[in-house]
Amino acid sequence: TSRCGGGKDVVVTNQMWVVAYDVTHDGRRQRVANALSRHGDRVQRSVFIVRVPDGGASTLAEEINHIIDPSTDSVHMVLQCACCEDRIVQLGQAVVPPLADCWVVV
Q1: CB 32 within 8 A of CB 21
Q2: What confidence tens digit (pLDDT) does each residue in 75-84 have?
């Protein structure tokens, strides 16, 4: 549970991250995009909004770190708190992908 401004309690099951990257090599760039697309949606050419379970960002960061060349590439991962999601401003054609319903079939 996370407490937002105004005393609002929010149950957090997934963390939302904005991930922006500048990867110089086409192959590595595509592999980074593929890794991110498994967790979220592309909102710009090199920007994704991803949702991972609490603590899952370190696993995603490790996966991306194995792909990139740290001497030439850069990746920024910015956590968006549960309260901030309601405050995202979208202009023009910008759309923040909705949180998808998940179904588990056993």
Answers
A1: yes
A2: 999 998 777 7
The owner of tokens 């939302």 is: 16
- Cβ–Cβ < 8 Å for 51, 99: yes
> For residue 36, which of 13, 59, 10 has the smallest C-alpha distance?
59
Under 8 Å CB-to-CB from 75, ≥6 apart: which residues?
A: 19, 20, 21, 22, 23, 32, 61, 64, 68
Give helix then strand counts, H and E, for the chain.
Answer: 2, 6
The maximal CA–CA distance of the chain, rounded, in angstroms, is: 46
What is this structure's pTM?
0.77
